[in-house]
Amino acid sequence: MNPEPPEPAEAAGPPERSEAARPAGPPAERGAPVGRRVFLGTLALGALGVVAAPPLQRGMEAFLGSAADKDPTGLTGLLPNGGGFRYYSVTSSVPHRNATNYRLTVDGLVDRPAGYTLADLRALPQTRMVRDVQCVTGWRVPGTPFEGVRLSTLLDAAGVRAEAGAVRFTCFDGAYSESLTLAQARRADVLVALRMQDKDLGHDHGGPVRLYVAPMYFYKSAKWLSGITVTEKVKPGYWEERGYDVDAWVGRSNGRDDEPTS
Question: Looking at residue 246, which CATH number applies to its domain?
Answer without folding.
Answer: 3.90.420.10
